Hints:
Blueprint: H1 3-30, H2 36-62, H3 68-71, H4 80-105, H5 114-135, H6 140-169, H7 174-186, H8 194-211, H9 215-238, H10 254-276
Helix pairs in contact: 1-2, 2-6, 4-8, 4-9, 4-10, 6-7, 6-9, 7-8, 8-9, 8-10
Amino acid sequence: MDKTFVRIVIWLGFMAALTLVAMGIWMVGFGGSQTTESLKWLQFLQTLGTFLLPAIFGAWIWDKNHRPFTWLQLDKKISWQIVLLAIAIMICAIPAINLLAELNGKIELPESLDSIEQLFRKYEEDAARLTERFLQTDNIGVLFINLCLMALLPACAEELSFRGTLQQLLGNRHMAIWLSAIIFSAIHMQFYGFVPRMLMGAMFGYVFLWTGSLWAPIVMHFTNNGLAVLLYYFSDEIEGNRTWADTIGTGNMWWLGLISLIATTALLGLLYKQLKSKKYETL
């Protein structure tokens, strides 16, 4: 039997088992309560059980010296120049992501699939309301918790799973990058955000391939999520509007989204060129 197939089955088995464990712990601890605190604990446990721990356990098995961080390419540090460029790329990409999300949201399914479309839209609305519940706070302590729960932990856990594990198992080349990105986007179960999330996943995948270090996509993923948390927290003081940051690059500002897309592509090209020329050596 193919070794890659066996490893993917093992990884999926860990995911299934540990997700059930996470759900069990939550049910025992909170009894299925739908309070914001309870749901935050559920997200924390699910992120650990579904993404973080299965990747570490799998890597521990597959590395001949049982060094999971080595197998996952977490032992390879990156230079500060790469870190800064990765952060700049994600900040620059915000209007482009918003524009792509707007275009994705305008997709209409055939009339025969109207019931499915309504289900998709309802799920999107429910997910947006839940996210807003998580983000609503005027407490700096809760902001820090939100940054850990909704930015740092998902960035580490999801990159360990989709780039560190799946992309490497599939061969860490073009097909592996795009297949991992498609699965990464699909597993979020948000049809009307599928395209921008898939493209972000592919971007993370190529940065991982170019740098040889999982820290680079983790930094980019954290920057994207962390900016969303921070912009929501400070948005009332800036504009008196919690959603203004999501409209940059959309509607009448579509041109800004287009410029952002071009600039992001150029920055990615610069990163690739600098890495290829060994100007920014990974440490």
